[in-house]
Specification:
Blueprint: E1 4-12, E2 15-25, H1 28-35, E3 42-45, E4 49-52, E5 58-60, E6 67-71, E7 85-87, H2 89-99, E8 106-116
Antiparallel strand pairs: 1-2, 1-8, 2-6, 3-4, 3-8, 4-5, 6-7
């Protein structure tokens, strides 16, 4: 029996953080239900962690197999995956503070979910 991974995309404008919210759904349908449940609608990004509102889910900076940051630096009315640039956690924080003049904690809202048969993020060893 396959296990499915569920991710949720959190964003603010052109800044995105995709997070792993579940890693052992028994079917694609169960994974979709988890992703679409509304339990992961708001996230608060700190210097060293992301905390999901109303849930016990916290993702720490060092858990690189549980998230991916992306930014689209050029505004377009319609964007594709290729328009986004992957960022590390440190690059994402620096982007928000220095380029966007934002402060932490930074609020992100969900706008999509994904289901995968394989782990969607590669763990980065520092």
């Amino acid at each position: 029996m396959n296990e499915f991974f569920t991710t949720v995309g959190l964003h603010d404008g052109n800044f995105e953080m995709e997070i792993l919210v579940h890693s052992s759904a028994n079917s694609n349908e169960e994974s979709k239900k988890i992703g679409n449940s509304g339990k992961f609608n708001i996230g608060y990004l700190y210097e060293d962690k992301l905390v999901v509102k109303g849930e016990t889910l916290t993702i720490k900076k060092e858990e690189t197999d549980k998230y991916q940051f992306r930014v689209c630096r050029e505004w377009k009315p319609v964007v594709s995956y290729e328009d986004y640039e992957d960022l590390t956690w440190d690059e994402a924080i620096r982007y928000l503070i220095q380029e966007e003049n934002r402060s932490l904690p930074f609020t992100l809202e969900s706008y999509y979910y994904g289901t995968f048969e394989n782990q969607p993020f590669v763990k980065i060893c520092n």
